[in-house]
Design a protein that fits this description.
Number of domains of chain A: 1
Distance between the termini of chain A: 15 Å
CATH architecture of the largest domain in chain B: 3-Layer(aba) Sandwich
Radius of gyration of chain A: 21 Å
CATH topology of chain A: ABC transporter involved in vitamin B12 uptake, BtuC
Largest sheet of chain B: 6 strands, mixed
Number of strands of chain A: 2
CATH class of chain A: Mainly Alpha
Radius of gyration of chain B: 25 Å
Number of domains of chain B: 3
Shape of chain A: globular
Strand order of the largest sheet of chain A: 1-2
Number of strands of chain B: 20
Structural class of chain A: mainly alpha
CATH architecture of chain A: Orthogonal Bundle
CATH superfamily of the largest domain in chain B: P-loop containing nucleotide triphosphate hydrolases
Helix content of chain B: 25-40%
CATH class of the largest domain in chain B: Alpha Beta
Strand content of chain A: under 5%
Largest sheet of chain A: 2 strands, antiparallel
Oligomer: heterodimer
């Protein structure tokens, strides 16, 4: 009995229930919401957010926040896109189609490290530093691209193919990549020394150095990972949408990602957050995004409803959990 | 002397510590033997905790050397201390509340690489083994958050064992524990001693020291006064050694006329914190409230002021019973409370001095909601003149002033409300001697104006020289009410040091 209660107290169970209830409610009005095709649409909406959310979760667990991820996504995608458009041959070889993947990840890592360096060296709060780099990195994207979009014809078709299909039931590669990242981050967070140190650091930043945790290095690592995954999301954006636009690409990404992570149960106070919860948070947002157009809600109101749904989810979760904890205490007492 | 014959585990020589320009520890030589429980005793601020923290790498000594098993060692930080086998257990342990108990035992301790695998199963098994060894039942897979203080201390002790510590320092571990938890802690401490480990036990409770410790070292004013086997010293010896400094006669009580009763407290009780507190303070009278830190003095003050009201008992002001459930009611009734920790409870650090002063009387400076600058400025200038607050400008952030001048500004704030009863909690803590003397004369003047003053202080000379009567609290009870003529350091200390309390509670 107590075990069952404990399971239901877990944040993940609550989000899973919310997803099911939400889908059933929408399905009651629009039965086509509960079809495999719709699942495919939902899953295709989520990979970029999932990848970004994995990095953001680690940042939030470490009691920081990274607001610059949308701009990192845009800048790293733009660097790769310009490389493709440059259309050079290297020493007689064609530029391979996949080169944008390591390039974007490398650019993202550097930008994330720059965030981490500003935060650790100057002891500035992450929210301020990444608010600054949110603007700085977006500005750099405009400068290097001369504010010009990388059009469809420059993105290699193999890269675009990653978002279209795969030999495995025709499920696009990009979905496997997202879940692969989630599994890697899960292993990293739960089963490596430094992964646990991230949780320790966020749980009690004062005690962390007293226990031999290298706070500066761990902080740098966390922001580097967030940057690297945003870079990966950047090249996959080019794959998914087939273009890179200096102002649109990645804009608003941080909002969706942070919302997913927080709905997924990570605590802004640090120390708490799971990969499973974050995945479910991403899926809940995916369901909401897919349902809004289907329900005939006009594009002009979608942002407002999206925001309201996030707040409602947080409020329900908070009150349910508090009651659950209270009842658990009564049982034990 | 029945010292163990073995070579010392730790030999400290000439240890000194200077904070800013103040010597808090001078030339301490101390040998700690393997397999002994060694008590460090002394008044608050005597240097015992500083010494322990130097051994544990929390502070670095300004002078002196530490040898471990005859080898001179450096202890630059707590991690290094842990590697040397020295663990400090804080009274309220520092932990990672979101991590499991098992993880808390080992986090940061492993030497292998960043990306090496965490051996969860092995870690959990080892944590269970340590808990079994200690004979405590804590689920090691649960998070630290929500564990009782006693259990958290047990986890800390298990952590010391996990790193195979030879020296375990317990800094006032028993203060937050129940008698039964204290007994458990003691039996574990004895077991660890019998394994040949050394334990430093810091406590105010003589009874506990007697029950547990083999030897005792007494500190006073940053000096080591004596080290001896506990059996060689009587309680009276220990108290005499703890307080034996000459009383400095740097204060004079201005003779105020003592009038009728201003504040009367009867049977004030807050279960678990203080019980059955009754006393009165008359107009023009300065009543001291002495005792050790944690005796419940501040809690009584907070109860009177309505911050955390008492569960039962009555408070009367000038003969009229009053009910105070909130500080605003207390202020309206003419009470003022200058809290102990001004950094936390007293000042608005980033606001200007004048805002900090005028904040007590919003209606006077801002009738109708708009601040009248001229009124505010006049009030500030008046306070600066009366209390001789030293500052560059009234518009300066109060955080830039020295501790003593901050304290004066806080006092000025409360005086604006023209209180009939003024409660001062450790008003001179962390203040230079010079400003202290000014404070004493201010307090004397306030009494002479007919205000009733309740002065909480841990400094015995301050209580003795300033107060008309000294009340003493120990472990939540009023243990003495000593008139000025009979107040001596010995009398106050005898009432303040808990003795026999443990025996009573265990018997009950």
């Amino acid at each position: 009995m107590t075990t069952l209660r404990t399971i239901f107290l877990r944040r993940e169970a609550g989000i899973a229930v919310m997803i099911v209830l939400f889908c059933l409610a929408v399905g009651a009005f629009k039965p086509q919401f509960l079809t495999l095709d719709q699942l495919r649409i939902i899953l295709l909406l989520t990979p970029l957010i999932m990848i970004g959310a994995m990095g953001q979760m680690l940042v939030i667990v470490a009691r920081h926040v990274d607001l610059s991820i949308g701009s990192i996504l845009g800048l790293s995608a733009m660097v790769s896109g310009m490389l493709y458009r440059w259309d050079a041959t290297w020493f007689g070889f064609d530029v391979p189609w996949w080169i944008g993947i390591p390039i974007s990840v490398a650019v993202g890592t550097l930008l994330g490290l720059a965030n981490g360096a500003l935060i650790t060296v100057f002891r500035l709060p992450a929210i301020i530093v990444t608010l600054g780099t949110l603007s700085l990195y977006r500005g750099l994207t405009f400068i290097i691209s001369s504010a010009k979009q990388i059009d469809r014809q420059w993105i290699p078709s193999e890269l675009k193919g990653l978002s279209q299909t795969s030999p495995i039931f025709g499920i696009p590669w990009i979905i496997f990549i997202a879940f692969g990242v989630a599994i890697l981050v899960w292993y990293f967070a739960m089963h490596t020394r430094v992964g646990r140190q991230i949780y320790a650091l966020g749980s009690n930043p004062v005690a962390a150095p007293l226990r031999g945790i290298k706070v500066t290095q761990v902080t740098l690592l966390v922001f580097a990972i967030s940057g690297a995954l945003s870079g990966l999301a950047g090249i996959l954006y080019a794959s998914r949408w087939g273009f890179v636009n200096p102002s649109n690409t990645g804009s608003g990404f941080e909002f969706q990602v942070i919302a997913a992570v927080v709905i997924g149960g990570a605590s802004i106070n640090g120390g708490v957050g799971t990969v499973l919860g974050t995945v479910l948070g991403v899926l809940l947002l995916g369901c909401v995004s897919a349902a809004l157009p289907l329900l005939g809600i006009p594009g002009t109101s979608q942002a407002a409803i999206y925001g309201a749904v996030i707040l409602i989810a947080l409020v329900i979760d908070r009150s349910v959990r508090q009651q659950g904890i209270a009842s658990l205490k009564r049982v034990r007492a | 002397m029945s010292e163990p014959a073995a070579a010392p585990l730790i030999s400290a020589r000439g240890i000194g510590k200077t904070f800013a320009t103040v010597d808090v520890l001078r030339d301490v030589d101390l040998d700690l033997m393997p397999g002994e429980i060694h008590a460090l005793l002394g008044e608050n601020g005597a240097g015992k905790s500083t010494f322990a923290k130097i051994l544990a790498g929390v502070h670095r000594p300004t002078r002196g050397t530490i040898a471990l098993n005859g080898q001179q060692v450096e202890v630059p930080n707590p991690v290094a201390a842990q590697k040397l086998g020295i663990t400090l257990i804080h009274q309220e342990p520092i932990s990672f509340p979101d991590l499991s108990v098992a993880e808390n035992l080992v986090i940061g301790a492993a030497e292998d690489g960043w990306f090496s695998r965490v051996p969860w199963a092995e870690m959990t098994r080892e944590a269970r083994r340590l808990m079994d060894l200690l004979g405590v039942r804590i689920d090691v897979t649960r998070p630290m958050r929500g564990l009782s203080i006693a259990d958290q201390q047990m986890v800390e002790i298990a952590r010391a064992l996990a790193s195979n510590s030879r020296l375990i320092i317990m800094d006032e571990p028993t203060a937050p524990l129940t008698p039964r938890e204290v007994e458990t802690l003691f039996s574990i401490a004895r077991k660890l001693r019998d394994e040949g480990r050394t334990i430093i036990f810091i406590s105010h409770r003589l009874e506990e020291v007697r029950a547990l410790c083999d030897r005792v070292t007494i500190f006073r004013d940053g000096n080591k006064i004596a080290t001896d086997t506990i059996g060689n010293l009587t309680d009276a010896d220990i108290i005499r050694l703890m307080i034996g400094r000459p009383v400095k006669e740097y204060m004079h009580k201005t003779g105020a006329k003592i009038g009728e009763v201003a504040l009367k407290v009867e049977n004030l009780t807050l279960p678990g914190v203080f019980s059955d507190i009754s006393f009165e303070v008359r107009k023009g009278e300065i009543v001291g409230l002495g005792g050790l830190v944690g005796a419940g003095r501040t809690d009584v003050a907070k109860a009177i002021f309505g911050v955390t009201p008492a569960a039962s008992g009555t408070i009367s002001l000038e003969g009229r019973p009053v009910s105070i459930t909130d500080p605003s009611e207390a202020i309206a009734l003419g009470l003022a409370f200058v809290p102990e920790d001004r950094a936390v409870a007293g000042i608005f650090r980033t606001l200007s001095v004048e805002h900090n002063i005028s904040v007590a009387v919003p209606k006077r400076i801002a009738p109708g909601g708009f601040i009248r600058r001229a009124v505010e400025k006049a009030m500030g200038e008046d306070a600066v003149r009366k209390l001789s607050i030293r500052l560059a400008s009234l518009r300066q952030p109060i955080g830039e002033l020295s501790g003593g001048n901050q304290q004066k500004a806080i006092l000025a704030r409360w005086l604006l409300t023209d209180p009939r009863v003024l409660i001062l909690d450790e008003p001179t803590r962390g203040i230079d001697i010079g400003v202290k003397a000014e404070f004493y004369s201010i307090i004397g003047e306030l009494a002479a104006q007919g205000r009733a003053i309740l002065l909480i202080s841990s400094e015995l000379p301050e209580l003795l020289a300033l107060c008309d009567r000294v009340l003493v609290m120990s472990e939540g009870r009023l243990t003495a009410d000593i008139p000025r003529a009979e107040a001596t350091q010995e009398a106050v200390m005898h009432a303040a040091v808990p003795r026999g309390a443990l025996r009573e509670e265990v018997a009950a």
